[in-house]
Amino acid sequence: MSSQSALPNSISLAGKTAIVTGGSRGIGAGIALELASRGANVALVYHSESSTAKAEKVAAQIAELGRKAALIRVDLSSLECGQQVIHQTLAQLKVPHIDILVNNAAADPPFRPLLETDFGEFERSSILTRMGGSNLSIYTATKSALEGLTRHWAHELAKTYKLTVNTIALGEIAVDSTPQEVTDEFRDAQLDLPSAARRFGTIEEVAQVAAFLASAGSSWINGGSIPASGGSYYW
Asked: How far are the Cα atoms of 133, 172, 227 from residue 198, in angstroms, in the given order?
């Protein structure tokens, strides 16, 4: 995967430590491998026991790149998970601090009208990072909330800790976890949009955006929502 990267080799993350949630498969695994290919040690955070084998496979690929990997299985919906992930990352990788955090973990949104969506689904949808369209008003609302948090955290953390915070706004990406509720008509409508690239994006393309945002070259980009959508927009 990393061998296909179009980013210049001069973009280095050597000596950095990264946490990637949802790192056992799909976009998360792709980002983890891209970061590792540029010198970062990576903690792979995943949820279910069924994902352990996939996480171990990604960790083995990271080791082949000459980097260290940590495996952390945790429920990210719990209030205590943050400190647990941090402590395990520092302990397993034997590093003094963490440089990069990629909040990639997500769940499939409820593809149904607002009046058919219960509050429990609203809570789960609030962790999603992709925009929605028809029958996805809750999805769109949580996306807007995420972008608001990004702007405020960027201001607060830059001022106090000299950190940058950005969001990657994805279009349709070809992954192995596409929600079953998405109909063929929905896909066709997106691919036919005049502003779209008329293809699905790849995991590698998203991973390269993440790697650049994690590098020193993006130091003047802060509080932004960076589109990685091939020009696709949802209405």
From this structure: 17, 10, 16
Among 5, 24, 37, 125, which one carries the catalytic annotation?
125
pLDDT for position 52: 97
Closest CA to 132 of 119, 120, 146, 149: 146
pLDDT tens-place string over residues 33-82: 999 999 999 999 999 999 999 999 999 999 999 999 999 999 988 888 99
Q: Which structural domain range is residue 190 located in?
A: 109-234
**138's tokens:** 């809750």
Known catalytic residue at 143 = yes
Of 51, 126, 137, 225, catalytic: 126
Please identify, among 105, 120, 142, the residue that sits at the C-terminal boundary of a domain: 105
Which of 54, 139, 232, 234 does the annotation list as catalytic? Answer: 139
**Residues 72, 121: one domain?**
no
Is 126 among the residues known to form the active site?
yes
Assess whether pLDDT exceeds 80 at residue 183: no
- Tell me the pTM: 0.83
